[in-house]
Amino acid sequence: MKGSQIVAHKYANALYLSISEPSKIETYMNILEELSLLMKKERFRDFFMDPAIPVKAKMEFLSSIFTLDEMLENFLKLILEKKRFQMIDVISASFKSVVYQENDILQVRCISAKELEDGDLKKIKEVLKKKFRKRVHIFTEKDESLLAGVKLFFDSQLVDLTVKGELEKMLSQTLEGVRS
């Protein structure tokens, strides 16, 4: 882990451990994710990175666009005061990771050439659920450079079920057979 990821993980873990009501976890995750997306917008980022604007004004702005409880408000105020708000995307991703890990949820990134149908996603989920004995949360992405099939990324693993991946496996096995 890089230094910024370690710091973000500490903030995310502290936030997670301080949540007394499990029902708030998803709300916090959504707000952090939304802030992460907003920080990609130049005007929003400039406002929050401007040292001339007081933390109080920044917090008033956040309170005007989000419904913040005291815990999340204090957390956001802390990262503003510590000048860590530019890390909100890393903190958000780390928070999501902590939540999934603590709740035995396998986070899977599924890349396919086209939009997958619900039935296909359900089959993938069921296979992974049986294999890992965890709940499965799948994030889908499209990559039109793939011919067909899917790539699954989870727990630092890659499962390549694309046509190209299968052809490469066949070629490798054939070459091994020739060399033997």
Keywords summarizing the entry:
single chain; 180 residues; alpha+beta; Peroxidase, domain 1; Glutaredoxin; 2 domains; 4-stranded mixed β-sheet; 8 helices; elongated
Please describe what this structure looks like:
- This protein is of the alpha+beta class and 180 residues long.
- It folds into 2 domains: 3-101, Orthogonal Bundle (Peroxidase, domain 1), CATH 1.10.520; 104-179, 3-Layer(aba) Sandwich (Glutaredoxin).
- The chain contains 8 helices and 4 strands.
- It has a 4-stranded mixed beta sheet, sandwiched between helices.
- The protein is elongated, with a radius of gyration of 21 Å.
- The two termini are 41 Å apart.
What about the largest sheet? 4 strands, mixed
Count the strands?
4
Spatial shape: elongated
Number of domains: 2
Mind telling me the CATH class of the largest domain? Mainly Alpha
Structural class: alpha+beta
